[in-house]
Amino acid sequence: MIPRDYITAWRAEAPWVEDAQVEQDLVISRALIDIFSHPVLKDALAFRGGTALYKLFLKPAARYSEDIDLVQVKAEPAGDIMTALRDVLSPWLDDNPRYKQGDGRVTFRFRFQSEDPTPQPLSLKVEINTREHFAVHGLEDIPFEVQSRWYEGACAIPSYGLNELLGTKLRALYQRRKGRDLFDLYVALQHRDSDPERIIETFNAYMEHGGHEVTRTQFTDNLADKLRNRQFGADIGPLLRDGYDWNLEEMAATVSEELISKLNDDH
């Protein structure tokens, strides 16, 4: 789909270990332009998740991210959004994408073959949260552009501010067992605009919205349990820029000191 020399040139923007990762990164970048240039999608969706952090705020990216997470900003039927998403991505990516709908989510998988000498199957997952129609600190339009020999384009992407993205990332760290969530928080806390108080405010608001409350002790025990699991950090190394060093214990100590320590402990 993409000439190999164009993929090689994109490595300057996406210095990942595998050529297929570089190719996927370029596909994601074009998909974002196409999605948020569409009149229906740009008004109906907001960009969230790890890919949003690294595409919009934490540049150059410290790690590879392989999918697109979106949020439906208004409570309305998702049919028009699903149709529009197929309309913008199917013509150049996959004319017969798989999708599933349920549990407050719509998930598309657009499949394609890599341009490696021995092609490997790749897929772009686009997941839409159709349940959380709110933002603690509002949405903002963030300029985004792609300049490559294969594709050029620009748009404004509706997304959450850095600290709201990090509040939802902190929630992800608590709710699932992926070391990349800890890594992302550690990297982001070094950004000049990160604000632990706003991150915690956002985290508490999202947990309350979901009917949950988490104390400092509960989160501390939760993270300690994850650190004892050898698989917790296994997803980090293959995703990082070449030569990027990381230490799981150091990252946990920083996130605990900067964020978890600020949670209430009333119970």
Summarize the structure in words.
The structure is a single chain. The protein has 267 residues and is of the alpha+beta class. The protein is 42% helix and 19% strand. It folds into 2 domains: 4-160, JHP933, nucleotidyltransferase-like core domain (Nuclear Transport Factor 2, Chain: A); 163-262, no CATH class. The chain contains 10 helices and 7 strands. Strands 1-2-5-4-3 form a 5-stranded mixed sheet. Helix 6 packs across helix 8 (196-209) and helix 7 crosses helix 10 (248-258). The chain starts with a helix and ends in a 9-residue tail after the last helix. 35% of the residues are buried.
Please report the number of helical segments: 10
**What CATH architecture of the largest domain do you see?**
Roll
Q: In percent terms, what proportion of residues is strand?
A: 15-25%
Beta-strand segment tally? 7
Q: Give start-end ranges of low-pLDDT stretches.
A: none
**Main β-sheet, in a few words?**
5 strands, mixed
N- to C-terminal distance: 56 Å
Helix content: 40-55%
CATH fold call of the largest domain: Nuclear Transport Factor 2, Chain: A
The Rg value, from CA coordinates, equals 19 Å
The best one-word shape is globular
Overall structural domain count: 2
Mean pLDDT rating: 95
